[in-house]
Amino acid sequence: MALLLTVFMMLTLSQYAAIGLIEKTSTGIVLINPKFPVHSRRKFCNMTVIFMNTDSLLKQRLICVAVIDKPEDAVPLAEALLTGGLNAIEVTFRTAGAADSIARIRQALPQAIVGAGTLLTAEQVKQAVQAGAQFGVSPGLSEAVSQAAHDTQLPLFPGVVTPSEIIHALDLGWKNLKFFPAETFGGAKALKALAGPFGHTGVKFIPTGGINAVNLANYAALSQVAAIGGSWMADRKLVAEKSWGKITSLTAEAMKIIAAAKA
User: Fold this and answer.
1) Which residues belong to the active site?
2) Please, what is the Cα angle at 138 between 134 and 139, to 5 degrees?
3) I need a surface site. Which of 8, 12, 209, 218 has the fewest CB within 10 A?
């Protein structure tokens, strides 16, 4: 069994499809054949949904960016976000337990959309995919990270700031780009300016960095913003203190601001 699982993890998605282990639905979701057991750190389980198309995962226009120090806090955090109306969480690879946190949420809460953030290397992309991440986010634009994401068919939001970086990202095949750090580099005004030369390309931005409940509406009002990344609703201290009720309250407030911007 161990040998079989090792071979399974080494195959490409094209090879999985060729031997009947995966299939793609019309919504862009890739499914593992439920008859084939996938190994997790805790037990054997049937991995169902692996990747979602970007339209589905960006639908709510808000992504919680979370730093989780203890993997056992991952599921309660995701539950608090879901109670507040948000299903998308980006677990940053800034702690040793990031991959484990992603795997726990994916196993316990199939309704949650779980991504891996702060992806700096190709190896981290592989770890994120193996943990079950449904999308990836990088603070910058790395060709190695980009290629690893393409190889594994992981939707990636690479980080950009300048027009040159945007052009490079488009050349690499990405149109949903993280704009980071947003407030430091001009915020909503900068994104409005970038819409001029790049609007016709279909590029969309996911501003992150310095965004909170006070300035959230400024970004949500922009058509070129696909979604907004923020950590204020699940601050690292709030997670460490297990302040799930407070996290739910802040999340619900943010979702109301997003809804008002759509109206």
Assistant:
1) 90, 178
2) 150
3) 12
